[in-house]
Amino acid sequence: MHLSYEELLRHDIPEVRHAYSQRDAIVYALSVGLGQDPLDALDLRYVDEQYGPCILPTMAVVLGYPGFWLKAPGIGADVTRLLHGEQSVTLLAPLPPSGEVVGKTRVLEAVDKGDKGLLLYTEKELREAVSGRLLARTAATHVLRGDGGMAGAPTQARAAPSFPEGAPRWRETVHTRPEQALLYRQNGDRNPLHSDPGVAKAAGFDRPILHGLCTFAAVNHAVSRRLGKVGEDAFESVSMRFAAPVFPGETLAIDVWEDGAFRASAVGRDIVVAQGRQTHR
């Protein structure tokens, strides 16, 4: 990376004005796996306008999204080796099913892990464009595997959140689709790691991987359904830590605890891919 630690913390990421329609909300819902069962009355509220309009709370991560800003001239990050480490969303007001919003993203911290890379912590505030009302805060941690060794950066990462010691109460299943990453790209995340086999191979994967934010939304929706907390009047927040990539077409088994904790595993590989917690109003 060309930027120093101090320059990275001061880097101004331009705010993004984002007008979106109900159709955009439907495309988002389809891209994270809703609608696979055409008789599912709950999912129809998100994918068919005559039953809605409803919008998934995790859409806050793509609204006002600043794009692939690390690829901008002068930054010099090794984006081919970038992975999504953590993501959270906190809703502060209901997301309108259509409208115009403004997203402002800023760098919170960077932590150097040497040959393991650089941890980059960012936060976005999402506001209604006209009123300025704060709708949501999202936070992300990205792992820049090729950018370790940043002079002056702290070396202590944030502690992992606590997790229940007892057995989960439920197990849910999510089936991802082979073309799901190609569809999810239509939400604005055009990182070629998720579509270009050559880029995926250069990054160390046999084939393109699913967007972390697609996994984030699919798992969150399954957990909300199991807990009976679907809808803007029930959902408050979700935080998730990614442990391994998901490949499009894989099946995920999701263990859910009564307190909102969850853990997702890739069935065919028998490895944990993500874990986290929901909170509710």
Please tell me about this protein's structure:
A hairpin with a 5-residue loop joins strand 3 and strand 4. This protein is an alpha+beta fold and 281 residues long. Helices cover 18% and strands 31% of the residues. The mean pLDDT is 94. Strands 1-3-4-5-2-7-10-9-8-6 form a ten-stranded antiparallel sheet. The chain has six helices and ten strands. The chain has a single domain, classed as Hotdog Thioesterase (Thiol Ester Dehydrase, Chain A, Roll).
Strand tally: 10
The spatial strand order of the largest sheet comes to: 1-3-4-5-2-7-10-9-8-6
Shape descriptor reads: globular
Q: What is the CATH homologous superfamily assignment?
A: Hotdog Thioesterase
Number of helices: 6
**Which blocks of ≥5 consecutive residues have pLDDT under 50?**
none
What integer value in Å does the Rg equal? Answer: 18 Å
| Helix-strand makeup class | alpha+beta
CATH fold-level topology: Thiol Ester Dehydrase, Chain A
Largest pleated sheet: 10 strands, antiparallel
Q: SSE order in H/E notation?
A: HEHHEEEEEHHHEEEE
Distance between the termini: 41 Å
For the residues shown, what is the average pLDDT? 94
